[in-house]
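Reopening this one. Same input as before:
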Amino acid sequence: METILKYIKGDRAIWLIMLILSVASLLLVYSSIVTLAYRHHDGNTFYYLFRHGFILVCGLGLMYLAHKVKFTYYARIAQLALYISIPLLLVTLLMGTSLNSANRWLTIPVINQTFQTSDLAKLALIMYVARFLALKQDVIKDFQKGFLPMLIPIFVVCGLIFPADLSTAALLFVNCIVLMFIGKAQLKHIGLLVLAGIFALGMVYLVGKAMPGSFKRLDTWTTRIESFWKADQATANASYQTDQSKIAIAQGGLARLAPGKSVQRNFLPHPYSDFIYAIVLEEYGLLGGIGILLLYLMLLFRSIKVGLSSPKMFGALLAIGIGFGLVFQAMVNMAVAVNLVPVTGQTLPMVSMGGTSIWFTCLAVGMILSVSAGTESKEELPTGNRPLAHAS
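Same output, byte for byte:
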């Protein structure tokens, strides 16, 4: 064990959290893919078990490689990643693989693996904003020199994601706002940005209603919101998923240990991805659900701790920005499952079945661990000299 641990750097608690989530993912995906297996592989659930296990192992390998890279190199990679992700988002929007009237994926030739380009774009934008804020600290409170130039990539990336995936664009937009706040941007500038975002969303709604068909996903978004506030015949299909999720939660009760014995996996449309948290609550009860929730909260806490300990502003913003983004997405997924917010289509990071999404999650966590490893290799700065110690 000591031989293995000497090759692993960074926050050990984050390593442990990721390993626990990986094991939970393997158990939950194997339990929830029964109907998918019968539909596509004659009931062969082992196909998905081994495929998902392979993806998880590769993801943990990517996390290991990412944590071995000095975190300052990611500042240099940030621009390149952003320049690559924007054309990929545009290609996806125009000619990507369509599912449910949304072009979110590109199919990689030869291996025939779908690739959600927004996963790359999210990570690239967080890296870029963290880098920009770190470099522009001297002028960050100046609207024209420090704040305005940062808005261009944010609006471009979020704008390209928005037509096919409103929730992902909204979560990424909020993530950038949180980074700006931590990076000491003026509150009045952030407030104007929030108002601009709300105005843009309102204009899309008005244009979409005035010109039917101009935004293909608009009807889906409005139906989901309406079904959340009221249940009637017009919104019955949209509320079906949350109704089945509520049944799963009721069956789980306070405490249950019934792995593989879910009933609602046969009725939930996406029990292995969007509604996998409902399977957690059905098979392991409320205590199991709280356990998963606490793991994500611990991941956020450790990410913040890593950020506050970093001797460089870029490392601090990168760790906190990535940690917040992952945990915020997890909270939205869990909130949907328990019907606290409308259906969004967000997966549970590192737990839901996926391919490239798990790999990008692991790469992101590897970057947090890289910041942590870089902090461990140097003497800690006095508290007053830490870049976020005097953040306002």
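So the earlier flakiness isn't reproducible anymore. For the record, The first strand starts at residue 97 and ends at 99.
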